[in-house]
């Protein structure tokens, strides 16, 4: 599966505000824009089972690349599991794709870590388990006018 240009790198952190401050101070990252105090994912399936979870999310720029900071707000998400097992760090590579249905069909051979294609999601998205990609989770987001609107402020951070 040939992927388009990278949309963002997802980074799991213990404290979103502290990570923004440290990345800004140490590496010159920023500016950052928050997705709000809490992003709730009530319609997501985690390994095929309904599993609502919440995250604090912020997007920023690091060396011209959009990064997404993800702070788990409960213990139900794969992000919380990642944090408990590995600590803070890079969690996934994300791509906005035009041909989402075709890519999802091709990816069905892989385990879906998170399935965010349900009717309650403003943008259809999935996390592909990292077993097929040497441990790195791949996120596919459907590129639609709604996605462009939702992610427009974050895309503007990189001029994209």
Explained architecture:
The chain has 160 residues and is α+β, with helices and mostly antiparallel strands. It has one domain (8-157): 2,3-Dihydroxybiphenyl 1,2-Dioxygenase, domain 1 (Roll), CATH 3.10.180.10. Helix content is 26%, strand content 36%. Strands 1, 2, 3, 4, 5, 6, 7, 8, 9, 10 and 11 form an eleven-stranded mixed β-sheet that branches. The longest helix is centred in the last third of the chain and has 13 residues, at 145-157. It is globular and about 40 Å long. Residues 5-143 form the VOC domain. This is VOC domain-containing protein. Keywords: Metal-binding.
Principal-axis shape equals globular
H-E order: EHEEEEEEHEHEEEH
Helix tally? 4
Question: What is the helix content?
Answer: 25-40%
- Measured distance between first and last alpha carbons: 23 Å
Annotation, overall tally of beta strands: 11
The proportion of residues in beta strands is 35-45%
GO molecular function: metal ion binding; methylmalonyl-CoA epimerase activity
InterPro entries: Glyas_Bleomycin-R_OHBP_Dase, MMCE/EMCE_epimerase, VOC_core
GO biological process, one term: L-methylmalonyl-CoA metabolic process
Pfam families: Glyoxalase_4
């Amino acid at each position: 599966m040939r992927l388009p240009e990278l949309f963002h790198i997802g980074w799991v952190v213990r404290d979103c505000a502290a990570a923004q401050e440290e990345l800004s101070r140490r590496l010159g990252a920023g500016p950052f824009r928050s997705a709000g105090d809490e992003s709730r994912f009530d319609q997501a399936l985690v390994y095929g089972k309904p599993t609502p979870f919440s995250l604090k999310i912020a997007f920023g720029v690091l060396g011209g690349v959009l990064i997404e900071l993800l702070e788990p707000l409960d213990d139900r998400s794969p992000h919380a599991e990642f944090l408990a097992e590995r600590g803070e760090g890079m969690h996934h590579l994300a791509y906005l794709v035009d041909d989402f249905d075709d890519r999802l069909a091709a990816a069905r051979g892989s385990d879906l870590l998170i399935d965010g294609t349900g009717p309650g999601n403003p943008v259809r998205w999935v996390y592909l388990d990292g077993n097929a990609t040497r441990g790195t989770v791949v996120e596919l987001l459907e590129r639609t006018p709604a996605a462009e609107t939702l992610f427009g402020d974050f895309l503007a951070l990189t001029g994209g």
